[in-house]
Design a protein that fits this description.
With 204 residues, the chain is an alpha/beta fold. The protein is built from 6 helices and 7 strands; from the N terminus they run H-H-E-H-E-H-E-E-H-E-H-E-E. Strands 3-2-1-4-5-7-6 form a 7-stranded mixed sheet. The chain is globular.
Length: 204
């Protein structure tokens, strides 16, 4: 699945279902990282900013958003104006434009990435020493979640042991992986259950 797909769906991305999920996931992020004050944060794969704008008012936090979809980024930029968040929400065009983040998080991003280990190492490399990495993504499933998306060539979720090994190999310590969210998705008028995990680690 490439950026063309996300450009095509950008205008309808902020559905009630995704907004509700973002509210829940933002609370999970705050539980995992309760001391967000004055942190420099990257949302890798920010999309339209559903998570960013749940978190942007947290104690002088500085959030940088990065995404490969131009139309998703356009909506993100409009939200910066809408919420008058110029002082602490920023959209970066290149992943390496900034570095030394205290926190990097992503939601439902890495299962789309083919060269997973390479991209994890690149993203985690942008953390400051002692910084936190949070990865929210699909628990391992049978492919049903994307079965109607012909251009999807990513991963059908991940097992927890697999994720832990990947993060260890990418330079993280103190790693935990746990399922935190149960959801449903309608496919061909059928309600399909799925679950999400959060993986957390610290950069050496």
């Amino acid at each position: 699945m490439d950026n063309v797909y996300f450009d095509q769906v950008a205008s309808s991305w902020d559905s009630k279902r995704r907004i509700r999920r973002a509210e829940t996931l933002a609370n999970i992020i705050k539980e995992e990282v309760p001391d967000m004050e004055n942190k420099k944060v990257l949302e890798f794969g920010c999309g339209t900013g559903l998570l960013t704008f749940q978190l942007y008012q947290e104690n002088a936090i500085q959030i940088y958003g990065y995404d490969l979809s131009p139309k998703m980024c356009s909506i993100y930029e409009k939200k910066i104006e809408l919420y008058e968040a110029f002082y602490n929400v920023h959209l970066i065009k290149e992943l390496t434009e900034e570095k030394d983040y205290d926190l990097i998080y992503s939601s439902m991003v890495f299962h789309h990435i083919i060269n997973l280990k390479e991209k994890l190492e690149e993203v985690i490399g942008l953390l400051a020493a002692g910084g936190t990495f949070l990865m929210i993504d699909l628990d391992k499933e049978d492919g049903t979640f994307h079965k109607n998306e012909e251009d999807f060539h990513g991963h059908n979720g991940f097992g927890h042991k697999e994720v832990k090994t990947l993060l260890q190999d990418s330079g993280l310590v103190n790693i935990s992986v746990k399922t935190v969210y149960q959801g449903t998705k309608y496919i061909n008028n059928q309600e399909i259950p799925y679950s999400l995990f959060v993986a957390k680690g610290t950069k050496r």
